[in-house]
Design a protein that fits this description.
With 164 residues, the protein is of the alpha+beta class. It contains five helices and eight strands. It starts with 6 loop residues before the first strand and ends with a helix.
Length: 164
């Protein structure tokens, strides 16, 4: 079962899952399919509205405080829509409709349906999503490299300064 902490930086993080048993009828109703978007409907103001596209090859369901968005793949690229939700356009709309109840901020499915996003032709959505995914991959590679370089610099410094 995916929960809100499994949505990290616009992606599904498969770590720290909880496991449940589902009947066959529940599986038909609740199992995620590739391309489904998960939207965090309840959390703090900063975390409500986090989204990610499900792309895994495993049986997974989702917690009740997440909304599953099924898109028509003939009209909408899920990665494109995910980027929009996580963009200033999406964040502004989430902030406008979110309301605080018992210390938690909420956005419901009906409010989310009223969001307005630019939807160019599908071919352009694919191109935009592809470029953004490539940029994000490059960014992640540079972040990994910077962590490795920092660790190496610390090791080099310690080896040059510390005498045993």
């Amino acid at each position: 079962m995916l929960r809100m902490n499994n949505i990290v930086d616009g992606e599904v993080d498969m770590a720290n899952q909880k496991y449940i048993e589902l009947t066959e009828s529940e599986k038909k109703k609740y199992l995620l399919k590739k391309g489904d978007i998960l939207f965090n409907r309840t959390n703090s103001k900063e975390l409500v509205g986090k989204t990610a596209v499900f792309k895994e090859n495993v049986e997974c369901t989702f917690a009740s405080y997440l909304i599953r968005i099924k898109v028509n793949p003939d009209k909408v690229n899920p990665d494109y829509l995910n980027f929009l939700f996580n963009s200033p356009i999406g964040r502004t709309q989430i902030d406008l409709v979110s309301r605080q109840v018992s210390g938690q901020v909420n956005v419901n499915a009906q409010e989310m349906r009223n969001f307005i996003f630019p939807l160019p032709k599908l071919e352009l959505q694919h191109k935009i999503a592809s470029e953004l995914l490539k940029m994000k991959s490059n960014q992640n590679n540079y972040l990994d490299l910077s962590v490795q370089n920092a660790e190496q610099a610390i090791n080099d410094f310690q080896n040059s300064v510390i005498v045993e």
